[in-house]
Amino acid sequence: MSKAKEKAHGELERVIDAVADSYRLGRGIDKLESAALPSQRKVAEALRHLEHVIYMGCYSARELDDVNLRHHIGDHLYTAFDMLVEQTARATAYYRDGATEPSADDTARCRKVVLEVFAAIPALREAADRDVRAAFDGDPAAGSIEEIIFSYPGVQAITVYRIAHEFYLRGVPMIPRIMTEDAHGRTGIDIHPGATVGRGFFIDHGTGIVIGETTVIGNNVKIYQGVTLGALAIERDERGAVVRGAKRHPTIEDDVTIYAGAKILGGETVIGRGSVVGGNVWLTESIPPNTRVTYSAARGCEMQAIQAVTPVRRKRAAGEASD
């Protein structure tokens, strides 16, 4: 070994010692119990199985008919069941005690939770059908239902959100967020699993959308890329600690359209039913039902009542762009 290389190795050894020493400081990032944590890879793999079950006709590589359908559904659900029981039990035990193995009670409870979520799959498929149809009816560029399921990131993100939300409602730690962050990485759409989203939700294009934890979205809502449904400010208590669980994100009522780049912030902000929020609008206060809000650099934000509100007339009045 050359002297230069030997010297470099000596310096690298000192760096390694310094990094190892930095793990002895007792900070949150210094924990070494990763073996006890749930596996992101296994959660994502289980999620793929559930997505296949929801859209079996699109994702199956094997020929399906009424005779073998049940068998193929069973293949996916048995595999996903074992994975998710193990991973939810790991998350439960870790959040309670840190680096410990799940107890028999943890595993038994998680079996019950996963079975409850799986029992909701027919209802999730009904919701998925409404979401896919909203995309087909709302986008003239859509060639078919199958094209939407295969290639629309909004549908993929919403489907994963709806699965994750079922786990969130049952108090499962970490796993719902792993699921929605997996979808976030694939689609560029960030939907917190705690958000409440109604039927017929259509995300068009989708990149850069953020939907916060306490957002409430009604039925038949359509949003475009770059929209943020976020918090106005982070509330803190008298000790300076972040207040958790408060309503921080807006409420979007039924039949609302929100165009690209709009930012709607605050837990008390309500966008009234049938309203249209134009591109790049910044809202931190409520607007009444059937209101159009637009933005221009010269005039800022302007509000206007929408007359004779119907989906078709609202679309024409707003000058909605189509692909």
Give an account of the 3D structure.
It contains 10 helices and 15 strands. It is an alpha/beta fold and 323 residues long. The strands form 3 sheets. A 6-stranded mixed beta sheet has the order 3-6-9-12-14-15. A hairpin with a 3-residue loop joins β14 and β15 (300-305). α2 (40-54) packs antiparallel against α4 and α6 packs antiparallel against α8. It is globular, with a radius of gyration of 24 Å. The N and C termini lie far apart (63 Å).
Please outline the helices and strands.
Blueprint (H helix, E strand, L loop, with lengths): L2 H20 L17 H15 L1 H4 L9 H29 L6 H16 L1 H18 L6 H7 L1 H17 L5 H13 L2 E2 L4 E2 L4 E2 L6 E2 L4 E2 L4 E2 L4 E3 L20 E2 L4 E2 L4 E3 L4 E2 L4 E2 L4 E2 L7 E6 L3 E6 L5 H8 L5
Parallel strand pairs: 1-4, 2-5, 3-6, 4-7, 5-8, 6-9, 7-10, 8-11, 9-12, 10-13, 12-14
Antiparallel strand pairs: 14-15
Helix pairs in contact: 2-4, 2-9, 4-5, 6-8, 8-9
By DSSP, the count of extended strands is: 15
Low-confidence stretches: 309-323
**Overall 3D geometry?**
globular
**Radius of gyration of CA atoms, rounded to a whole number:** 24 Å
Strands of the widest sheet, in order across it, are: 3-6-9-12-14-15
Mean pLDDT: 90
**Class from secondary-structure proportions:** alpha/beta
Element string (H = helix, E = strand): HHHHHHHHHEEEEEEEEEEEEEEEH
Short overview:
With 323 residues, the chain is of the alpha/beta class.
Relevant terms:
single chain; 323 residues; alpha/beta; six-stranded mixed sheet; five-stranded parallel sheet; 10 helices; 15 strands; 12% strand; globular; disordered C terminus
